[in-house]
Amino acid sequence: MKYRHFGKTEWKISALSLIIMPLSAIEEDPAALNISAMSKIIRYAIDGGVNYLDLGYPYYMKQSQDFYAQIRQALADGYREKIKVALRLPSLLIRSPRDFNHYLNEQMQQVWLKQVDFCLLEGLNRETWPKMKELGAIAWAEQAMREGRIKRLGFIFHDDHQFLRSIIQAYDHWAVAQFQYSYMDYKHHPGLSGLQFAAQQDLPVITEDPFKGGWLLKELPEEAAALLAGAKQKRTLAEWALLWCWNHPEIDSVMAEMTSLQQAKEYLALADKAETGMLEVNDLLLLTRVREAYQKRRAVPCPTCYCCMPCPQGIDVPRIIELYNEALMFKDPRQPRYFYRVENHQPEKCHECERCMQACPRGYPTIELLKKAELLFSGDTFSNCTD
Q1: What is the pTM of this model?
Q2: CB count, 10 Å around CB of 157?
């Protein structure tokens, strides 16, 4: 296992980190999370050198008791001392200052932890960060650190890199930033520019979701599959995705889902050769073309520039279109539908005032797209509204 210095601390983080709450297993496909094998997977990863564990947050998981029991079992017998554990505070669910303690204490009690190494404010963006500040998130976290319940404070961000600056500069003691990042997210929320800005501020960066919710491990578009089949260097789909992330010097660790021992063995073996700059120019160009092959499936090439915002009815038009585009790109509405529901989007509030259409510099039919997204995500199948 390769390791990198974690910011200005003496601790070194493993190139591969572990999250055990894959999105595909939360609501739509609970069988994807092999709960009975979870403790074995966690221990195998720790024995292999993984030293950062993000527990995720079980928003809708019906098997949460079994889930937490497996974590307790995995961290027993001295394994807790071998790894840093991160818990998430779900910003979408926090409504009052007392909710901070509620969601932290609830998880700590479930996992039998007296102290958390990293407490992460999850889901920060231009909408949630002002609310977190108003509710006193930083002051609460500093008090929790003084009490010894948490050691360090970090955040998970998903928005344009311009808004990342205000979050980083709002607090001098952020311990870590986590971003979604894959070869499909090169320019997206916050993309490479966000990684570079965080690194310039000496803020450690952990990226998650290198497989884009598992989509990049499944059947590729015909054009993309042909490109990878013709590559000079033959690699598995997981290897392409992980090497892309490890290739970036700004990334301290890449967090991957492991739902089987077979996956854990494969990813740990790849982590043994994780180095920056290991992909050649031809490899990077190849993955750019693979990304373009996926993007051809989008309804519209919306860059989520937010020119159409704000909406008088409070509808997050760019985010809904982003989720709709992802459902089309990967021919799978399950994970976009999950986020659509968790984020509580309500396009039915649209009065069709057409302000978003008038403001869109590309003239996209945003109202029509909102209706198609609602039709797709309110159902349980991949209906014909994907035309």
Answers
A1: 0.89
A2: 26
Domains defined for the chain, CATH in brackets: 3-287 (3.20.20.100), 317-386 (no CATH)
State how far Cα 336 lies from the chain centre. 13
For 151, the 3-state DSSP assignment is strand
Query: Could you tell me the two tokens for 78?
Result: 């001295």
- Whole-angstrom distance, CA of residue 245 vs CA of residue 155: 19
- Cα(262)–Cα(277) distance, rounded to whole angstroms? 27
pLDDT tens sequence across 167-182: 999 999 999 999 999 9
Q: Show Cβ contacts of residue 249 under 8 Å, excluding neighbours closer than 6 positions.
A: 199, 276, 277
For residue 249, CA distances in Å to 241, 260, 276 come to 16, 29, 5
Cα(111)–Cα(90) distance, integer angstroms: 17
pLDDT higher than 80, residue 357: yes
Beta-bridge partners for 155: 121, 177
Beta strand 116-124 pairing with 84-90: parallel
Enter the tokens of residue 144.
């929790």
DSSP-based three-state secondary structure for 116: strand
Write b or e for each residue in 127-149: b if 16 or more Cβ atoms lie within 10 A of its Cβ, otherwise e. bbbeebeebebbebbeebeeeeb
Check if the beta carbon of residue 258 is closer than 8 Å to that of residue 41.
yes
> What value, to the nearest 5°, has the Cα angle with vertex 96 and ends 92 and 97?
110
C-alpha closest to that of 86 among 115, 106, 64: 115
C-alpha span between 248 and 202 (Å, rounded):
15
CB within 8 A of 129, min separation 6: which ones? 163, 166, 167
Distance separating alpha carbons of residues 171 and 251, to the nearest angstrom: 21
Contact 55, 107 (CB under 8 A): yes
Confidence band for 189, pLDDT divided at 50, 70 and 90: confident
pLDDT digits (tens, 9 = 90+) for 10-58: 899 999 999 976 454 444 444 455 677 889 999 999 999 999 999 988 7
d(Cα 264, Cα 257) in Å, to the nearest integer?
9
